[in-house]
Amino acid sequence: MRILFLNPNSTGAMTESIVAIAEAANPDVEVFGWTNHDGPPAIEGADDGAAAVPGLLALLPKARDESADAIVIACFDDTGLAEVRAAAHCPVIGIGQSAFVAAQLLGHRFSVVTTLDASVPVIEGNIAAHGFDTACTSVRASGLPVLVVEEGSEATRARLADEVRAAAAEGASAVLLGCAGMAGLREDLITRTGVPLIDGVAAAAQFAAALARLA
C-alpha cells in the first residue's frame, strides 16, 4: 500500500519531516511525499491556501501514475481538500480533518494551537464544516510563523507549551497540533505540559491506510 502526503507549500524540508513522522506512525505501509513547488513557502491563511490549490491539482495525474492508494493533504488547514478529493482517483483526507476525527473518537473536548492569526478563521471554518464545533473549546494562534515552528527552537517550544497549557486551562482535554511543522515537537511538548496532544500527520497515516483498504 502506498500513501502519498502532498505538502501544499513549496518548502521541501517540511515534506521530508512530514514523511519521516508518517513512516514512524505507520511502518506497515509505504509513505512517500511530494512538495507543491508552485505553492507559497508556507500556508498562512486563506490567500496562501487558494494560491496552493492549482499546484496540488496538477500533481494528481502523477499520483495516479505512481499508484497512490490514498492521498493526505499535509497542511492543518486542509488546503484544497475538497478540490483534490473531487479530482483524485483514490481516497483523500487532510491532517486537520484526521486530528478532529481522532479527538472525537478518543472522546476529547479539544483545542487547536496553530501558527498565525490568519489561520484561525480557516481552521474554525473547517471544524464547523465537519461538525466538530461543539467539541472545540478554542483555536489559539501562537503568533509563530510556519517556518519558525518548523525550525523548532527552544523559544518556539516554550511559546507553544505556554499555549498548550492555556488551552488546557480553558477546559480542553486534548490539544491538536495545528501545523504540520509541530508534529516533530509532540513528544517534547507532552513532556513540558503533561497535556495529551494529537498530531494530524500521525493520525492521517493511520486513517489513510484504513480508507484505502475500504475503498
Number of helices: 10
Radius of gyration: 16 Å
What string, H for helix and E for strand, traces the elements in order? EHEHHEHEHEHEHHEHEH
The count of strands amounts to 8
The average pLDDT is 97
Main-sheet strand order equals: 2-1-3-4
The CATH architecture of the largest domain comes to 3-Layer(aba) Sandwich
What does the overall shape look like?
A: globular
Number of domains: 2
Description of the molecule:
This protein is α/β, with parallel strands linked by helices. It has two domains: 2-94 and 202-214, Rossmann fold (3-Layer(aba) Sandwich); 96-199, 3-Layer(aba) Sandwich (Rossmann fold). Helices cover 49% and strands 17% of the residues. It contains ten helices and eight strands. The strands form two sheets. It has a four-stranded parallel β-sheet with strand order 2-1-3-4, with helices on both faces. The model has no long low-confidence stretch (mean pLDDT 97).
TL;DR?
The protein folds into two domains: 2-94 and 202-214, 3-Layer(aba) Sandwich (Rossmann fold), CATH 3.40.50; 96-199, Rossmann fold, CATH 3.40.50. With 215 residues, it is of the alpha/beta class. Helix content is 49%, strand content 17%.
